[in-house]
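Example record

The entry below shows one chain as it appears in the dataset: sequence first, then structure tokens.
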Amino acid sequence: MENNDYLVKSMTKDGMFRAYAVRATNLVEKAHEIHDTWSASSAALGRTLIGTLLLSTSSLDDKAGMTVKIQGDGPVGYIVADGTAHGEVKGYMKNPHVNLPLNEAGKIDVAGAVGRQGTLSVTTMTPGDKTPYTGEVDLISGELGDDFTYYLAKSEQIPSAVGLSVFVEKDDSIKAAGGFMVQVMPGASDEAITKLEDAIKGMPRVSDLLLEGKTPEDILHMLFPDEELKMLQTMPVSYACHCSKNRFAHALATIKPADLKEMIEQDEGAEIVCQFCGKKYHFDKQDLEVILKQATSSDEN
């Protein structure tokens, strides 16, 4: 599948608003294929990935990373997503096989799948920092767009509006997925904020706009129909996992030597499955003996 997913960063010429819009259909479809998600799970994971993408590309430094965790009381359980400043995102969830009746609006019941009680946390990791920063808020709706909006206002002190949308086909594949985020800059007038609120209220869902052939640029202009926009950056986005056997070997080296010895003596090896992409890595007895030797020698030093 050709990847035509991309994100656009913009700012109004008057400097009152910073706005982002993204088409993420292919990356959400890839997540669906990897995790075999059913409709409600597809929508919940997809919205989380898009929200993470909008946050990470708008706030992270070059080499920093971000982890978003949704912990609701709904049947999908927890959802985890990692994002970078470069438009890469990946994620997984506890229960990918959730399919619910449509909600009162005739749409996928994301809030019912995620739950209306729980938390949204965002952890930012910068190379060299020993202690990552984590901000956490309670879920306010479980629809996730509202929850990301609340997080930005409460934890980051940034008045914002976040819209997230995933259109799932009857066969659970993803037909359209995307979102937008608008951040209110200091000095924005009440009149301008009211106009933006009215524009958002009158907008169709982002996935419906994408199905009509609208682009992220079109969506930004719909948010600000009377404003001149300065397009700051256009960047490709993708579902990407950079796991490797070497990375998992380093992870194995951090567990207790007694547990490694048990793997060697009783299991004669280990198989690790990456939660993000499903790739399997096999470590035979000899591999584990090398890891154990390295781990114990580093402890002695």
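Notes for this example: The mean pLDDT is 93. The longest helix spans residues 39-59.
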